[in-house]
Amino acid sequence: MFRGYNARPSVKKVSALVDKRSHKQRKYISLMLVPSYSSGKTRSLRIPRVVFYCIIAAIITVATITTGFYLRGERFAEQYRDTRVYLEDTQEYLELFQQQTEEEQQRLMDESLELEEQLTEQERMARIEQNLLRQQQQNALNDLQYQIDELEDMIREFDQRQQSIIDGISTRTIIPAVATLFDTMQESRAALIYYSILWDLPQRQSRNSEYEVGFTAFSSEPFVPITEADLLARLELLTAELELQILLMDDLQSYRERMDPHLRNFPTLWPITAQISSPFGWRSNPMGGGGGEFHSGIDLRSPSGTPIRAAGGGTVTFVGWRGGYGQVVIINHGSGIQTLYAHNSVNLVTEGQRVERGDIIARVGTTGRTTGAHLHFEVILNGTAVNPRPYMLEHWN
To answer: Would you state the pLDDT for residue 37?
Structure first.
């Protein structure tokens, strides 16, 4: 009946005192829907707090974006109105300017007609004569320009022809006599240019052009009206240059004629157009057996019967059989130079015969010590075989 002295009173846990249901309800928001009529039933709508806050945030975001677009549209509309007003004002100014321009043109035309009516017959005739004189002067300028164009074409043609000849000669300076004459020719041409009348003429060059002709050239200054004095000075300069070009061409032709015998006789022609099958110099023995041998020429592989041409003009000094060379032709070109053509199937010249550059002297064969049809070609300088390749500058055309 009575509790003990040390008996402790029973106390419930704190968690048991908390209304669990009310704590759970804190996660929701309740909305009361009250009808407008008295007989309606009041309803309660419970929405989770997270969803409620998301809906509120979405509404705020949409409202913000909509407001932004609205304000931006208003700004664009205002700019459009301002631009339209500006364009309308500009159009008005343009129409006014055009009207004023037309009025000014009409006024100037009326004044011109009034001045024309005020001119006497004598003044009218003077004006007509002035126009005719101006036309005659223009025609004279056109004639001068036509003469200048013709001179420039002639000078350009002379210059191109000379350069072509000089380029051709320069590839033949391997010939000692030609090299000496070429150097002398260059000195002669330099002297002709140095003592030319061109250096005594005023360097008045026509303007407004971009190309060169010979030694004189147009400059590319800003356009300035060309006067008759300019054209006459240009014509005088080009005439002097044409005379110089003629002198240079005559001098070039004279040297070219002096070089011609050396060019015709010097062996610069390929005797046949073919592939080099064996070059000049040391090589292994083509007949087998090991060891090496010195090849004193070059071999040009070609079918039997192919025509062999003289590499240069000269006199035939040997025709016949020569050991391993088989049928051979040797030509003396002068200046200590000879050419040898070996392994021929047939020789078509005789000893002592004069042959010209490109003449057919034999045909390719396999005579002598050979492994197949080919031409053995040698260049002999002062009795010693040298490499023929530097001498072979061109093919027969």
So the answer is: 64
